[in-house]
Amino acid sequence: MKSDNVITVIVPVFNVAGYLDDCLRSVVAQTYTNLEILVVDDGSFDGSDALCDRWARSDPRITVIHQRNRGLSAARNIGLDHASGEFVLFVDPDDVVERVYAEKLHRAVTALGTPCAACGYGTETDGGSEVNYLTR
Fold first, then answer.
1. Pairing relationship of beta strands 62-67 and 35-42 according to DSSP bridges
2. pTM of this prediction?
3. What is the tens place of the pLDDT at every residue in 43-102?
4. Residue 37 pairs with which residues in a beta bridge?
5. What is the residue range of 22's domain?
6. Which of 43, 73, 101, 121 sees the fewest Cβ atoms within 10 Å?
7. CA separation for the pair 57, 52 (Å, rounded)
8. Residue 89 DSSP symbol
């Protein structure tokens, strides 16, 4: 059963211990707080599995699903199988999302009555940053 206005955020995880804290910190800090956060550990062996569990203990919106390594698509699909939100966002574990990420996408979908929304993304490097757009 889908929960009205809940956004399920699915984060597939495989050996990303060096990035995971920044990613999950950005997800839990969203201005849109009606979130279900599903972290799918896809058989990590670098300590990412323990980080996932630590995050779940620190925020009740986070649920961790541990599975043997089956790949990115399988991890996302397991997340979809467990999602109870009306909307779904995928966030890669090496991404950091802006605080208004979920809010802006939710506002776009509900205001326009569309089934999905897309957004741009930025790339940070030592030499500066660059903004790229998926759609215009």
1. parallel
2. 0.90
3. 999 999 999 999 999 999 999 999 999 999 999 999 999 999 999 999 999 999 999 999
4. 9, 62
5. 3-132
6. 73
7. 9
8. E
Q: Name the token pair of 36.
A: 């279900």
Q: Which tokens sit at 102?
A: 């979920």
Q: Could you report the per-residue pLDDT of 10-55, keeping only the tens digit for each?
A: 999 999 999 999 999 999 999 999 999 999 999 999 999 999 999 9
How many residues are given for the chain?
Answer: 136
Half-sphere exposure of residue 59, counting CA atoms within 13 Å on the CB side?
22
CATH number at residue 18: 3.90.550.10
What total of structural domains would you count in the chain? Answer: 1
Measure Cα distances from 23 to 45, 51, 92, 109, 126 in Å: 18, 12, 8, 24, 19
